[in-house]
Amino acid sequence: MSKEKERAHELLLESPEGIARLLKSAAHPARMKILALLAQEERDFSSLLRQSGLSKNALVNHLERMMENGLVRRESRGRYALTEDGRELVAAAADVYRGSVRRREDQKDRLRMLYDPGYSGGGGMMHKLVGNAGVYQPCWLSFTGAVAGCLKALGIECDTVDVGGMSGYSFLINVAKGRTCPSGPTAMPSETWEEVRKGVGNLGFELGHWEDNASYPSVPGSPTPEEIKKAEKLFEMVRKEIDRIDRPVVLWGLGAPEYGIVNGYDNKSYIVSTFRGLIGQPDDPVLYYDLKATGCMDLVWFGDRIKIDEKGALNDALVRALRFARGEMPKCRGYDSGPAALTEWARVLESGEGREYFGNSYVGACVAESREMCTEFMSRMSRKFEGERSRDLSEASKHYARGAKLMGQFTKLFPFAFEGEMKQADCKKGAEILRNVRRAEEKAIECIERAIES
Fold this sequence. Notes:
By secondary structure, this protein is an alpha+beta fold. The chain has helices at 3-14, 16-26, 29-40, 45-52, 56-68, 84-115, 142-153, 160-167, 190-201, 225-245, 310-326, 339-351, 357-384, 387-413, 424-453, and strands at residues 43-44, 72-74, 79-82, 127-129, 174-176, 205-212, 249-252, 259-266, 269-273, 286-287, 297-305, 335-337. Helix 8 packs across helix 13 and helix 12 (339-351) runs antiparallel to helix 15 (424-453). The longest helix has 32 residues, at 84-115. Mean pLDDT is 88; it is low at 117-124.
């Protein structure tokens, strides 16, 4: 080991807290953007406000955090500049990231050459795009957005509200006990997912399904040869299904642990439509072994078109919605669902024992959106019926609207981000909001119960 590396190693052992604090002060996308802007030249507050796209309060908070840790200094006349520490940190971060990206690409090229005999650095041996490609629909609940996009491509007049409502999925609130992690919206056992798919069938297509109940890869970014063989088997299944019926399919783990649409293949890559298209990122093809399928490998395809008994389908949807809303469906060990989930979420948020910013911001966004979906779905259902049942469903819609409004307040406290500050006052207020959402949920459930009874 060189003397320089020895000194760095000693420093890391002697001052881990100080180094972690310094890195944490820059470890936020907004702060990195501010540092990058200041690396170009000194800027005044109004210029940073305009070019960063942040709110005034957010920009003030980020600048103060970086000034406290010696990365930024305030010059005269309200201008800001990088310190020498800030300039060195930006340069070092850029170098490390550039090397990391290059190493990841090199690893992908090595894997291509090992496991894809037809790879030659470009082009492809096989190519197919379905006749009617699905477009991922804007939705935090990625299963709903992907399925709605496929059904629209297959000629079904529906949207994410129809998919979330008929399947019961939008009525579910599911959170981990003792820790607010982002897994809640998708962490459900196979039996519960089967019920979701059964509900989707009431929109006009029979769904086929295949799954493997193991994460792929077991170590993120490093699939084993055995795992790659499993991924190749899945790719062949998708390819054959697309060749056979010329329809898009829904696949878990495309670019992130989320559902997306596969519209075809190019050599051994999936041609996809995912949430990335909604945030301005390119929907590049995904190599068959480059999935990020946390928890399981999961594939859904669309089989035969089926004739629907509308009245029976609507009654079925009401019963399913009630079971999901009550939290009666099977759940994974260590999770709460239904109104009880809101109480557990509030308890963790207030106590601080296992709260995570990303978990609160992501689950909060999903629950806020799904309450809006429940509001609209109950309103649509009320127009399908008459008399007392119609009034009960309309009343349920109003209670869900109240819950959606409250969750909107929650998402303002914890806007979606991978990292963020969780002030005790905000956590206390957030817990109070969640308890009020529970009351709105319980009122809505009572209305659905009355509608079913009538």
